[in-house]
Amino acid sequence: MEQGGSGYEPEPLGLTPARDQVAAYYRARGTACDASAVFLTASTSEAFAYLMALACDPGDAVLVPRPGYPLLDYLAALSGIRLAPYSYRYDGSWRSIGPSSPSG
Predict the structure, then answer these.
(1) Distance CA 85, CA 52 (A)
(2) C-alpha span between 5 and 30 (Å, rounded)
(3) Which class for 33: exposed (0-12), middle (13-18), buried (19 or more C-beta within 10 A)?
(4) Is the CB of residue 19 less than 8 Å from the CB of residue 35?
């Protein structure tokens, strides 16, 4: 480290050793996974926010299960995305049981 430097070197996709471990976990279970394809976030909310920014445009509608992630309504509103909820149940396997009331 240079004199006066902080030594901080950001890794925007997550720390390399952590990404290596995630990739190894999936490879050990038979899934092809390279650490370069792993993107770690600090929270579920952060991951959902990235996904909405990458996959949706403001005004888009996204089909989501109810019940679901409790902060999704708030995150969708911040992104200008409309949620289209559906209900589901488990009776040996997960099944959609039709639309539920729309989200604001």
Answers:
(1) 16
(2) 43
(3) middle
(4) yes
